[in-house]
Design goal:
Blueprint (H helix, E strand, L loop, with lengths): L37 H4 L10 E3 L5 E3 L16 E6 L5 E6 L4 E5 L7 E5 L6 E6 L5 E6 L4 E7 L4 E4 L10 E6 L5 E6 L3 E6 L5 E7 L17
Antiparallel strand pairs: 1-2, 3-4, 4-5, 5-6, 7-8, 8-9, 9-10, 11-12, 12-13, 13-14
Keywords: Repeat, WD repeat
Pfam families: WD40
InterPro entries: WD40/YVTN_repeat-like_dom_sf (IPR015943), WD40_repeat_dom_sf (IPR036322), WD40_rpt (IPR001680), WD_repeat_multifunction (IPR051179)
Length: 223
């Protein structure tokens, strides 16, 4: 009986892999200068469009100078709401100091027209009516106070009575064509009032089961 020797496929031993010059598309020299950080070759020309500079130590410096057209800084706490008059250069701000301020926007610094007090908590909502004759404000204690304008916005006096329908006011929205406004409470309620003649309630209801924070509710004028 003859011995049969089984042979498998030949396995080439691994060796050095040699690539011919004709197999190379491009030769790139190893230039160490290409690996240098880009910021060392970049020459900073100083101030950029955002008022940011990089000093000699590589630290970023931000220009915090006040270049605003007008500014107001009478509040002693955070500001939560800002609204502007539709026709006059007047703004109102309400803050965590339980107050609202009316001030001019065409002078720098701004001039205070009046401070609105009588709130029990932070003033978080404020809106002028469509013609600017009234200002409606609300705070976190649930107070809604309406002010009437006189002497072309130089005098603002409380109008009628203070509303206290909700535990906390979340938003205020005024009607675009009539002296009507709506406000939402933390309990999800929405109340709509006609300012003239004596702050008459024309609608009250609930729009959500949780707090109502969206002032896009449908607001219609009485017929």
């Amino acid at each position: 009986m003859s011995n049969i020797e089984e042979t498998g496929p030949e396995v080439e031993e691994e060796g050095d892999i040699i690539i011919g010059a004709d197999e190379v598309d491009e030769v790139v020299d190893d230039d160490k200068s290409d690996h240098e950080p880009m910021d060392e070759d970049y020459e900073d020309d100083g101030l950029d469009d955002n008022g940011v500079t990089i000093n000699e130590d590589g630290n970023i410096e931000i220009d915090m100078s006040n270049n605003s057209q007008s500014y107001f800084e009478d509040h002693s706490d955070s500001i939560f709401t800002v609204a502007t008059h539709p026709t006059l250069p007047i703004a109102v701000t309400g803050g965590g100091d339980n107050a609202a301020y009316l001030w001019t926007t065409h002078s720098s610094p701004a001039k205070t027209i009046t401070k609105l007090a009588g709130y029990g908590e932070s003033v978080v909502a404020a809106e002028f009516t469509f013609d600017g004759s009234y200002l409606v404000t609300g705070d976190m204690s649930g107070k809604v106070i309406v002010y009437k304008s006189a002497k072309r916005g130089q005098l603002w006096e409380p109008y009628s009575r203070t509303l206290e329908d909700v535990e906390e006011v979340m938003w205020i929205s005024t009607h675009p064509k009539q002296n009507v406004f709506a406000f939402g409470g933390i309990d999800g309620s929405v109340s709509v009032y006609s300012i003239e003649p004596t702050l008459d309630l024309i609608f009250s209801g609930y729009s959500h089961s949780t707090e109502c924070t969206n002032a896009s509710s449908r607001l219609t004028a009485p017929t």
